[in-house]
Amino acid sequence: MIWPKQITNLIEVFSKFPQIGPKTAQRFVFWLLKKEKKDLEKFSQMIKDLTTIEVCQLCGNYTQGKICPICQDKTRDKSMLCLVSTPSELQTIEQTKKYSGLYFILGGLIDSLEDDKIKEIRINDLLKRLKQDKIKEIIFAFSPTIEGETTLLYLEDIIKKKFPKIKLSKLARGISLGTHLEYADEVTLGEAIKKREKIR
Ligand SMILES: [Zn+2]
Hints:
This protein is α/β, with parallel strands linked by helices. 42% of the residues lie in helices and 14% in strands.
């Protein structure tokens, strides 16, 4: 081995990051090696601090403690629930400042009804929440992609059967097809929430 295992071990870890190959992983490690020792200490402490992060028991967002600040916020409209697939999308919608209801993070999207991911997304948690809370409207805020549409149709069907009284809507058109929600611009997304289309 050309390098000590402290280096090769970390290269291996970085190369497992999303969209990072071994070459980029190597560049990361060499970049770190040029840093001062106290900066490396600080960096490793930051990673260690991530162990204190939990997942909100209501919406699924990352937080400290059991319930996140959004779910605890008494000024938010508790009759509205916005369904998103990831914490990044929740963040994108928050930044538009055009939505004041609550959220639920599904944890992914499905691309067909045979998709194994059906078991991974938090459908049961969602249904449990709909049973307990007084939600009057659900906004499907998925990316306008095949996965987004498939997930919407799948959930729409389940929710219609189990909760016929809940109003369902989805983001208005305007975000270009295929664009992932987390990259949509704030103004367009804000408009898409305001002008949301009624499904039922
Ligand atoms: Zn929450």
